[in-house]
Amino acid sequence: MNILVCVKRVPDTESRIRIQHETKSIAEDGLNFVISPYDEYAVEEALKLREAKGGTVRVVSVGKDAAVAVLRKCLAMGADEAFLVKDDSPETYDGLRTARIIARAVERKFAGTDLLLFGKQSVGTDNSQVPAMVAELLGLPQATVVTKLEVEGTSATALREIEGGMEKVVLSLPAVVTAQKGLNEPRYETLKGIMAAKKKDIPVVKLEELGLGPDELASQVEVTSLDVPAQRQAGKILKGDPIETARELVRLLRAEAKVI
Amino acid sequence: MIAVFMETRDGKIKKSSLEALSEAKRRAGEMGVETAAILVGGAVADLVPSAFALGAAKVYLIENKSLVDYSSQAYGLALAEFVGEVKPAALFFAATAMGRDLAPRVAARLGAGLASDCVKIAVKAGALEFTRPIYAGKAFLSLTLRSTPKLATLRPNVFPLGEAVPGAGEVVKMDVTVPDGTVKGRVAEVLKEESAEVDVTEADVVVSGGRGLKGPENFVLLHDLAAVFPRAAVGASRSAVDSGWIGHQHQVGQTGKTVSPNLYVAVGISGAIQHLAGMSSSKVIVAVNKDAEAPIFKVADYGIVGDLFEVVPRLRDELKKALAD
């Protein structure tokens, strides 16, 4: 079974986000970048499937040279091969543009892939667009936000989260699946894995090699503004007897906040 | 025209789709265009009146036996055909599990731009401007889309539901053929969670617990508190989830869910930045924590500094009394 995992480099979740207003972009200096947490579940699932069924795990990221660090982490976890599709353009927030790049890369460079795994969204852009778009562009079925995945022959059964329950989705392979927290517990890299990953070559696929036209690479999104939300003001603090404070809180929620 | 996909579950239109329709109606009014609702399924004609009640001028009915159960491929094809024929200026979805699964497929099929999980929509110089949180709400991005149509998913619980008044309009039936072999994935079964609890993203009140609860057995305090309200859910911090005290579907924060209820009650949660990102768009925030220096108090509208094991049961009793009045 040939699995391709798509990963993205993002600021870690403890990051405080600052805006560069002149370029309407996120200030990247001082941020600590990591593999998007949901992508880590996708990599782990791929490795588990390979352990159970054999085959290969390849990992790809679309981005700048810096994304190599994230790809190396995936190699250290145990992926067989990693590829960088080099795209130096700044963040467009346009899922379709990225999806077109990935779909074309799959057709041209990763033919014969049985399963495409993604994180359910990148932590940051929070679009949740790319995986389903790739599925559509390639004519593949999908299961998004998956917490359990079983593969049997040429079909996969996935449990996906919906409001107040789960949906069991049956897919014929090849298919696209996106990982949600709960799917598995990602492994740590071993020292041996880290050493081996350092020696591995990470081939670079140039955007031009994919033969996408300027229209396909143009962003549909025009950013009009980017801001951090107004800081919430600290409110009233109640201390003392639990009964008194509880009573006063309920009074305030009714009389002042008017939420009950 | 602004068209809105009406998600149906259990034979009813989801409230979040009706919110999306209400918002479409308001923006379409500003743009001087009409609003339409799209119902897709096996037999969904019964649901037409609820769409008219919120001001849709037209309801498009796409009924077909291959559309009885949701599949992103078949529904994606149906909506793309709708767009091809009707040519709306915009197509809205609720940002639910289904909407988030479906909208990107439709966008890719049409080659159209999509604004995900919008929390504000404005009309500027005749064009729709979408505002959406990024980094789980640490920043807000406003954007316009160059394509026609413009696709957007709208976050549940954010856009006010319009007042329903009985109305009528034009019902347009559309035939869509789903060729054999199109659908390679299908929903085999829907498994409901045992509890009848609403999802944290859809609840009016969210009561969340963190490390201060000391163990999984104490979440019962939060369930009891939540039970006082009609549409409440129990949430949790990442550390409570990672400790295995409660399922991850309850997690609020940057690697969990982003919520915006009317009332958010944080119990024994210190307020790590990734948690604050997921809940700071709540309308009113209450914090209960024994540590007066906890960062959660910096964002809370009301805070009680005290022992949660003493405060929470009292709070439940007082709320019960107040709500009974």
List keywords for this structure.
A: 260 residues, Rossmann fold, 9-stranded mixed sheet, two-stranded antiparallel sheet, 15 strands, 30% helix, B: 325 residues, alpha/beta, 7-stranded parallel sheet, 27% helix
Task: Write structural notes for this entry.
The complex is a heterodimer of chains A (260) and B (325). Chain A has 260 residues and is α/β, with parallel strands linked by helices. Chain A has two domains: 2-217, Rossmann fold (3-Layer(aba) Sandwich), CATH 3.40.50.620; 233-260, no CATH class. Helix content of chain A is 30%, strand content 31%. Chain A has helices spanning 37-53, 68-77, 95-109, 130-138, 191-199, 214-217, 242-255; strands at 2-6, 9-11, 19-20, 25-26, 33-35, 56-63, 81-86, 115-119, 142-152, 155-162, 165-172, 175-179, 204-206, 221-227, 236-239. In chain A, α2 (68-77) crosses α5 and α3 (95-109) packs across α4. Chain A is globular and about 65 Å long. The relative contact order of chain A is 0.17. Chain B has 325 residues and is an alpha/beta fold. Chain B has two domains: 2-173, 3-Layer(aba) Sandwich (Rossmann fold), CATH 3.40.50.620; 205-324, TPP-binding domain (Rossmann fold), CATH 3.40.50.1220. A seven-stranded parallel β-sheet of chain B has the order 7-11-6-1-4-5-12, sandwiched between helices. In chain B, β14 (205-209), α5 and β15 (232-236) form a beta-alpha-beta unit. The longest helix of chain B has 17 residues, at 15-31. At the A-B interface, α3, α4, β9, β10 and β11 of A face α3, α4, β7, β9 and β10 of B. β14 (221-227) of chain A pairs antiparallel with β10 of chain B.
